[in-house]
Amino acid sequence: MNKKHALNIANENQDDDDDRGTGTVDDAAADDANKEADEHEKSKATDDDKDKVDGDGDGDGDAKDNTNANAGMYKLGVPKSTWPVLSTNKEKETWITLPHPGDSAMDITLPPFWSHPVHNNELMSREKAMAIGTCIEPDKDGNYQRGDECPMHQRTVFVAIASYRDWQCKHTVTSIFHRAKHPERIRVAVVDQIVDGDDICDEPIQETCATMPDQDICKYADQIDVYRMDAPLAVGPVFARHIGHRQYRGEYYSMQSDAHVTFTQDWDEDILQQQEATKDDMAVLTTYLTDIVNSIDEKTGKSLRSTRPIMCNTDYEGGPQGKHLRHGSQPEQKPPADLTMPQLEPWWAAGFSFSRGHFVVNVPYDFYQPMIFQGEEMSIGIRGFTIGYDFYAPQRSVCFHHYASLNKDRVNVPHFWENTKSYQG
Fold first, then answer.
1. What is the DSSP string of 255-286?
2. 167-179: per-residue pLDDT in tens?
């Protein structure tokens, strides 16, 4: 397939859904690479179209002026947010055009970030941390950013999934909503990298929504935000997850998982309780997930395991790109009997991460790491730790992974490495 043609397909995202209202601010990223990407677009913008770059819609393209003009919308440098959230596909007038990270001769159009990082290279105050995160119901003044005053069951959850030609993605999304105790507060953002004929992540498992409207993907369609990309444009999980972080819109919590994961019953209530048990606003619950085999009771959806994985070791290993660190899990076992909260660990895992929403704001994925697989976890982990985030192993597993080594149906699922000849890393 011609790359220019593929790019056109990539930008033909799903049809716009109904307006539900949210705001975005000037698009700037956490690290120099992301800032360089956005500044590239600003530098070539004309006076007539600069508002398309900064996303403020006022026609002046000046982030500083935009901030001053809308000072009432900000609290401690944090944008206002609301619920329900407008699909990023309804914000296309604010999207920006950047060089494709694997081939600068091509352009690609992306949603703007909800906010630039707010940490200011120092440990955030609790007041600022509490300013980020929406409640599904506003207070008496119409404010959705209610901090601790928001009841636990009303705190919103953003779920980011990067999927590469994965037939199980729709099953993962279904599992997220079907087994959540409060699916009304979940919003799933998918970067779906596909070719013609592949399963589509936001299509129902059976028939269509017209013929079987009670399927979870149909019932919660307004809470599923999909960025569709033609698979030949894919350059690995870092770029796909970078796009996913651009889909965040101020939710109270943020979660990242792979596209081939099954969740347990009432997973949302369980993981929120574990998160809050740390009494740490900078806590990130993260781990390499246990395999699905013999892990979930098919009738109840409950976990069959009393053990949990924890990441305490890492080592260098070789490969085509030279020596690199690769984290490992300790032998899975029960948490210490006297431990009533998740346990601190040194590493961050990309396959499962749960935190307050400001983690996505402060530590967004790098834009310029094409064809990287080993290394993404070190980048996020180091950047997160150095501005104050703490990594914990969940005390209980709320989801389980479908590994190809134990699941024959996944053996032939394609990987982004099929694009190796097209892009350098």
1. EEE-SSEEEPTTHHHHHHHHHHHTT-TTEEEE
2. 999 999 999 999 9
Query: Which tokens sit at 422?
Result: 């097209």
Q: Which residue has the higher pLDDT, 25 or 196?
A: 196
Q: For 250-293, write each residue's pLDDT tens digit.
A: 999 999 999 999 999 999 999 999 999 999 999 999 999 999 99
Closest CA to 192 of 145, 241, 238: 241
* Cα(150)–Cα(166) distance, integer angstroms: 36
Structure tokens belonging to residue 79: 């944008």
For residue 302, which of 217, 182, 396, 404 has the smallest C-alpha distance?
Answer: 396
HEC profile of 183-203: HHHEEEEEEEEECCCCCCCCC
All structural domains of the chain, each given as residue ranges with its CATH number in brackets, are 3-419 (3.90.550.10)
Q: How large is the angle between the packed helices 376-386 and 237-246, nearest 10 degrees?
A: 40
Residue 84 preceded by cis peptide, ω within 30: yes
